[in-house]
Specification:
- It contains 11 helices and no strands.
- By secondary structure, it is mainly alpha-helical.
């Protein structure tokens, strides 16, 4: 019976994670496109930058490329988000259950911060290895100006750039031309970014226990009970803590994952490895280079996290149909 309950808990966590991740990604994807394009602008002279800030950058993308441009890479973003959040929550839930058993605690009850951190790290590593090819495709499609249409696309065609036709074509082309090495570009910074999820989930569980202190707890396992609105607020707060600490790694990853076969200025550097990308970014742009695109990223991820956790707790509550004790 315990094993059956554990399996049921895992699939409920997976479904709830998929629902939360996909809904937030679709709503906020335009901000992700702007963020990614700002991240790879590596010219130290801001006057030569194509996108002069987040707002002007968004307006220029819409003016030159239309809705298709501002939603470039939406398909891999939704697929990747759904798979990531689903796999993450399912693995995290299972890992917490294992640590609870090992510590003699209730499976859905409070755990020490170290156990929550280990469970989040496990879930992050597994999810990162599983989804890295999807994120490579997303980055490249977001940086592909024009989305296949308009003046920007015509410009690229004249330059001889071989464009990706979409998610599947990009995935197949990268696999064929660059192999596994191409599909797993940026894996090292992505593994480092696992700390982001670990920090956020640990902060979320801590804040959740504080918010639910003194309340009745769920009948199954004694889990802290929070309403979806509360979960959204806690998701926002925990995300802010994590994103501030880890954003520079996201910039480095985007620069590694961009295409190397597309024409760039003669003095533009290449970013083949993690250490090389860090040193070249710092040498050319200083600390500011590591925070390019930070503003649209914050605007995107804070509400995204709020939506995700609100949807997760809401869907999980419905699936569990679990009254408080």
């Amino acid at each position: 019976a315990d094993a059956r309950d554990a399996r049921a808990s895992d699939w409920r966590a997976f479904v709830a994670g998929v629902a939360g991740g996909a809904s937030s990604t679709l709503a906020l994807h335009p901000l992700d496109v702007v963020k990614t394009r700002l991240q790879v602008q590596d010219d130290p002279d801001a006057r030569r930058a194509r996108y002069a800030g987040a707002w002007r950058g968004a307006r220029r993308i819409v003016a030159e490329e239309g809705v298709r441009g501002i939603y470039a890479g939406a398909t891999p973003a939704i697929v990747g988000s759904a798979v990531s959040w689903g796999a993450y929550f399912a693995w995290y839930d299972g890992a917490r259950a294992r640590y609870a058993d090992a510590l003699g605690r209730e499976r859905n009850g409070a755990l020490p911060a170290g156990a929550n951190m280990m469970a989040a790290t496990e879930a992050g590593v597994v999810t990162t290895v599983l989804t890295n090819p999807i994120w490579v495709v997303k980055t490249r499609l977001q940086l592909q100006r024009g989305g296949g249409l308009g003046d920007a696309a015509s410009e690229a065609a004249k330059s001889g750039e071989k464009r990706y036709a979409g998610f599947v074509d990009a995935l197949a082309t990268i696999a064929r031309k660059e192999g596994l090495r191409g599909l797993y570009k940026g894996l090292v910074p992505s593994i480092w970014l696992v700390s982001h999820g670990s920090i956020q989930l640990t902060a979320y569980e801590w804040l959740k226990e504080i918010a639910a202190s003194g309340r009745a707890r769920r009948a199954r396992g004694g889990a802290a009970d929070v309403a979806p609105v509360e979960a959204g607020a806690l998701g926002l707060a925990s995300k802010f803590i994590a994103v501030t600490a880890t954003y520079p790694i996201q910039v480095v990853r985007a620069r590694i994952q961009q295409r190397s076969d597309v024409g760039r200025p003669a003095d533009a550097p290449t970013y083949a490895r993690f250490g090389e990308a860090v040193s070249r970014t710092f040498a050319r742009e200083g600390v500011r280079g590591f925070y390019k695109g930070f503003a649209p990223n914050v605007v995107r991820v804070l509400p995204s996290s709020a939506i995700t956790f609100a949807a997760y707790e809401g869907v999980l509550g419905v699936l569990n149909d679990d009254p408080v004790a």
